[in-house]
Amino acid sequence: MDAAASNPALVPEQPAAAVSDLVVLGLGYVGLPLAAEAVSAGLKVTGLDVSDRVVDGLNSAVSHVDDLSSEDVDRMLERGFTATTDPACLAAARTIVICVPTPLSPEGGPDLGAVTSAARSIAAHLQPGTLVILESTTYPGTTDEVVRPLLEESGLVAGADFHLAFSPERIDPGNATFGVANTPKVVGGLTEECGEAAAVFYGNFVDTVVRTRGTREAEMAKLLENTYRHVNIALVNEMAIFCQELGVDLWDSIAAAATKPFGFQAFYPGPGVGGHCIPIDPNYLSYKVKTLGYPFRFVELAQEINSRMPSYVIQRAQELLNESGMALSRSKVLLLGVTYKADIADQRESPARPVARKLAAKGATLSYHDPHVESWQVDGVDVPRSTDLDQAIAEADLTILLTDHAEYRPKRLEEYARLLLDTRGVLRRPDPEAGTAAVPAQARRRPRREGIQVL
Q1: Which segments carry the region annotation Disordered (predicted)?
Q2: Which residue of 39, 60, 84, 97 shows the fewest CB atoms closer than 10 Å?
Q3: Rounded to 5 degrees, what angle do the CA atoms 357, 227, 341 make?
């Protein structure tokens, strides 16, 4: 039973056949898995998106996100799911969930254009009793100060005529363990009744619902989660730089520290941060704090450190080549993995692009291998794709591992690479193919020969 159905007085006055339990506005990596879970729970779901390509593809059972296969979409269609570009479907919705992108503006501040556009579309069709939930990540106050006034242009009052809530998305693309159903759902309502309505709705298909005092607390919870990761990644990235100078094996130190059963969580260095959250979300919080007249120094420093990691990768690459008597400007460099995380196709904010840009600027001849990306451009220029992995590694003067896809096994890398810079610590992990899966300290494996380095 959904939130509106739990209170008959709040159900829109529409013919029963016209009512949808849920309209998901925005069918990307957040909205589509949400719709799929709701469909599997027996809800009647409509997906609304501005892209004809996305909508036509879904109605033809073609998935465009990593976490759902085309077979999954086909099962959704069999259970009554439909996708549309027509916002008129909003008038027949008991619950509307906004899952649109919230990128950064060119100036580095929040770009809420998609959110405000969605809110205006909803306002044009909003019915009494509807539950509206914002899931798009944003700064504290957005639901109440930005979305609410736009929805109330309908003539209806939030908290009195319709319910309004915020529930941060917690999608982790490529995570085979945690999905929509078994990841606790944080919910904050504009009023107590709004929060209860949203909690009842998500209770249809999410195992655990966590209530906050209001929308601002739920908005802040999401930013706190990602700022925590952002700052801790920056910490180990900076430590990686000076540990190299000090002759300290940071990976070994992390492995040792991680044996402490309390008070420590392991984070690992890398070529930078990427994806839909870490490079973006902390800046939303920093923006809001600046409106109070304060700098958010932790976030600003973390951003500075993580943003300079591609340059550090280039520095290490040059040093590795120089030690072998080669110049970067006359070298063939192979990039392994150009997505922002392992075993998915998502390239958003991937550090591979600034690394490639800097290598090209220094005259390196680039190629890439990625099993999930068939073509790749940097500043409008196509980078040649290698399809034979072993041959590509063997022919490159230098191989830089940027994304730890499953097929980049330590044994394979060490066997074929002339020179290798591993920015993800793959060479410090047990290699199942080499029979080392039982090694207790994950990070203590070391490269077996010269010319192979870990960041």
Answers
A1: 430-455
A2: 60
A3: 45
